Amino acid sequence: MGLQQFERRLERLVEGVFARAFRSGLQPVEIGRRLTREMDLRRTIAPRGTLAPNDFTVVLSLPDRNRFAAIEDELVSELEAVALEHAEAERYTLLGPVTVVIETDDGLAPGMVLVSGEMLKADEPPAAYLILPDGRRLQLGAKALTIGRMPDCGLTLADPNVSRYHAEIRPSEHSGLEAGHFEIADLGSTNGTRINGIPVTAPQALRKGDQITVGATSIRFDLG
User: Are 106 and 66 a contacting pair, CB within 8 Å?
Assistant: First the structure.
């Protein structure tokens, strides 16, 4: 499921003439497969669950690195999302946030990709914030935050397109991460909740930079 969503999201980034560069050669989804395979191969049974790598280095040939240059930032973000979704699906425990770095090896032939993963413990979980439309930062905590029009919501919005109790952001119980990670769930709202334009139909993990849309209001999720 995660890799299919990953492929669909990247397809929207490569349109028109640029899309022709992705009809042959190394495909982004293959990098995602290698990354999730690395997690599976290097998983370790521990007293608190199954540990898996969270810090990844992707090594590409110079021609492939050049092909992906225009979407490299987006590719890195999507690979991090794939790793997090795979950890959730397999109930892996991660010692810290997922990070992906892309490097080049002149000795690699086009089409080859190397992925290495390490278990890197974060010294301290990053603080999580919602960046509101007026620029204010609302820090998230250990308790769930309800978004809606009602005064008793943790975040009350004067938006007629927002339901009384529209959505909830809460510390993730299923991501396998120790702390600092959150998920969002729609509370049966009339107009729905979207993450980066995609409807939220089940609780979904949030990652740095995600744009949350409730009604006509856009809110950004940030870490650090």
Answer: no
Q: How far is residue 110's CA from residue 64's CA, in Å, rounded to a whole number?
A: 6
The C-alpha atoms of residue 213 and residue 163 are separated, in whole angstroms, by: 12
CA distances to 7, 135, 197 from 11, rounded to whole Å, are 6, 32, 15
Share of the chain above pLDDT 70, in %: 84
> Which amino acid does the sequence have at 27?
Q
Nearest C-alpha neighbor of 62 from the set 95, 88, 25, 14: 25
**Cα–Cα distance, 119 to 121 (Å, whole number):** 7
191-224 pLDDT per residue, tens: 999 999 999 999 988 988 899 999 999 999 998 7
**Exposure on the CB side of residue 110, measured as CA atoms within 13 A:** 9
